[in-house]
Design goal:
Layout lengths: L1 H12 L1 H47 L2 E4 L13 E3 L6 E2 L4 E2 L10 E4 L5 E4 L3 E8 L5 E3 L3 E11 L6 E4 L2 E4 L3 E5 L4 E4 L3 E3 L3 E4 L4 E6 L7 E4 L3 E6 L12 E10 L12 E10 L4 E3 L2 E11 L7 E5 L6 E3 L2 E2 L6 E5 L4 E4 L2 E2 L5 E3 L3 E6 L2 E2 L3 E4 L3 E6 L9 E4 L3 E5 L10 E4 L3 H11 L2
Helix pairs in contact: 1-2
C-alpha cells in the first residue's frame, strides 16, 4: 500500500514519468490482447484441422458393399437373405461383414449376381442403392433411410426391381432406371419435401396403399407412374411436382394421386391424365409442356385450385386418344396462354380463369358456375368458343375480333338477361 502511494506521489511530482507509466500500461494491454488473439487463431486453426480429419475419417469409413448372403465375398452371389445390422451378408471385396449404416449417409448397397428377395428386418440406412441385376425385391418390416446417391438401376434393360418396404428419403436424390427396365416402389416413401428426380429412360411406379408424405418429384426423362390406391390421406406425391421431360402419368385409383395442395409445373414433356381425374392446387409450366389423355375410352379431367391456388401455364392442353377436360376451382387465378386443342370442356366453379395471348380451348364448352372467366386476346385472328354457359359469375371479353362481329367488350354480372345475351353471342 505504501509503495502504491509512493508511486502516485512520484507521478504527481513528475508529469513526464506519469505519461511514461501510462504508455507502458497501454503497451502492456496491447501486448496481452495480441497474445490472446494469436491464441484464439491457433485454437480455431486446430478446430478446423480436427474437423477436416473427422470428415476424412468418415469418408474413409464409408463403403461400397455388395449383397452376398451366399458368403462368397470374392465373387458375391446375390440371392435371398436377411438385411439387418448383425448378419455378415455384405462383401467388401475380401470378406463378408455386417451392415452398419443407420442414417443413410455412409454406405452404398449393390445388388448383383442372382436376384432374390431381400428381407429388411430392422430400420437402417444406405446412402444409395445400386442394382446391376433385375428382379430383386426388397421387402420386410424395417424402414430404409435412403441418402443422397438415390437409386441407380441405369444398366438394367428389362424386368422389374421392387422396393416394397417403407423408405424415407433423407436427401434429394436421383432415381436412374435404364431404358426397358422398371422400378416399383410399393411401400410408403416419406420425405420432408425432398425431391426424387427421374434421370433414366425407364419407368418408375409409385404404388401401394400407404401415403408418400412430403415426397416431391421431378421428371426429366423416362416415365413416372402414380398408381396408389389413393384416398384423401393416401397420395403418391405430397410435394412440388415438376415435369421437365419424359412423362408423368396417372394410374391407380381414387383420383387423389397428388396431394391437393401441390403445385404441378409442366415445363417440358407430358402430363398424361391416362383416362383418370386428378386434383392439384396450382398449374404452372412453359410452352414446351403438354397435358393430354392417352386413353381413348375415358375422358381425363384435371382440376386445379384445390388449396385456392392458380398459376400460369403457357404450354398446351390437348386431346390424346381420349378427350381432356379442365376444371378451375378455389379462389386463385389460373392463366392459360398456350395453344390448346381439347374438347372435353372447361368448368369454372371458383376463382378466375384467364385466357391470354393466342390461347384457345379448342372446341370445349365453357361452363361458368362461379368465379370469373376473362378473355384477354390481343390479335386479329378469329377465336372460337363453342358454348359459353354463365351462371352467377363475371365474364370479361377484351379487344377480340370474333366471327360475326361479336362485341369486343362484354361483361356479365348477375343479370339473367345479360347472361343469356352473352351465351347467345358466344354460340352464334
Amino acid at each position: 500500500m505504501k509503495r502504491a502511494e509512493d508511486i502516485i506521489r512520484v507521478c504527481q511530482a513528475n508529469p513526464a514519468a506519469s505519461a511514461s507509466a501510462t504508455d507502458h500500461v497501454a503497451q502492456a494491454r496491447r501486448a496481452r490482447r495480441a497474445r490472446r488473439l494469436k491464441a484464439l487463431q491457433r485454437g480455431l486453426a486446430a478446430c478446423w484441422v480436427l474437423g477436416v480429419l473427422a470428415l476424412m475419417a468418415g469418408a474413409a469409413n464409408a463403403a461400397a458393399l455388395t449383397w452376398d448372403p451366399g458368403h462368397t465375398p470374392a465373387t458375391p452371389s446375390g440371392g435371398a437373405g436377411t438385411w439387418d445390422l448383425t448378419s455378415a451378408n455384405w462383401s467388401n471385396g475380401t470378406s463378408d461383414v455386417a451392415w452398419s449404416d443407420t442414417t443413410g449417409t455412409a454406405d452404398t448397397a449393390t445388388f448383383s449376381g442372382t436376384a432374390g428377395t431381400v428381407t429388411l428386418s430392422t430400420n437402417l440406412g444406405a446412402v444409395g442403392l445400386s442394382f446391376t441385376m433385375t428382379g430383386y425385391t426388397i421387402s420386410g418390416t424395417g424402414t430404409l433411410k435412403l441418402g443422397a446417391s438415390g437409386i441407380d438401376a441405369s444398366t438394367l434393360t428389362t424386368g422389374t426391381t421392387t422396393i416394397a418396404s417403407a423408405a424415407t428419403v433423407v436427401a434429394s436424390q436421383n432415381w436412374n432406371v435404364g431404358s426397358g427396365a422398371a422400378l416399383a416402389l410399393s411401400g410408403a416413401v416419406g420425405a420432408s419435401n425432398l425431391t426424387a428426380t427421374l434421370t433414366g429412360a425407364g419407368t418408375v411406379t409409385l404404388s401401394g396403399t400407404t401415403d408418400n408424405a412430403g415426397l416431391a418429384a421431378t421428371v426429366t426423362s423416362g416415365t413416372l407412374v402414380l398408381a396408389k390406391t389413393s384416398t384423401s390421406s393416401v397420395h403418391a406425391l405430397g410435394g412440388a411436382t415438376t415435369v421437365g421431360g419424359g412423362t408423368l402419368r396417372l394410374g391407380g385409383s381414387g383420383g387423389d394421386q397428388i396431394y391437393f395442395g401441390v403445385t404441378v409445373a409442366v415445363n417440358s414433356g407430358t402430363f398424361d391424365l391416362n383416362g383418370l381425374s386428378e386434383g392439384i392446387d396450382a398449374l404452372d409450366g412453359a410452352a414446351a409442356g403438354t397435358i393430354t389423355n392417352s386413353v381413348a375410352a375415358t375422358a381425363g379431367t384435371l382440376t386445379t385450385g384445390g388449396n385456392n391456388g392458380g398459376g400460369t401455364y403457357t404450354g398446351s392442353i390437348q386431346n390424346g386418344s381420349g378427350t381432356t377436360s379442365l376444371v378451375k376451382g378455389g379462389t386463385g387465378t389460373l392463366t392459360l396462354s398456350g395453344t390448346s386443342g381439347f374438347s372435353g370442356g372447361v368448368t369454372i366453379s371458383g376463382g378466375s380463369l384467364t385466357l391470354t395471348g393466342t390461347t384457345d380451348v379448342g372446341t370445349s364448352t365453357i361452363s361458368v358456375n362461379g368465379g370469373q372467366f376473362s378473355l384477354q386476346w390481343h390479335d386479329e385472328r378469329q377465336q372460337r368458343i363453342n358454348s359459353f354457359q354463365p351462371s352467377d359469375a363475371r365474364f370479361e371479353h377484351h379487344t377480340v375480333h370474333q366471327p360475326n362481329q361479336r362485341p369486343s367488350d362484354l361483361r356479365c354480372l348477375s343479370n339473367q338477361h345479360e347472361r343469356q345475351l352473352i351465351a347467345d353471342l358466344c354460340t352464334r
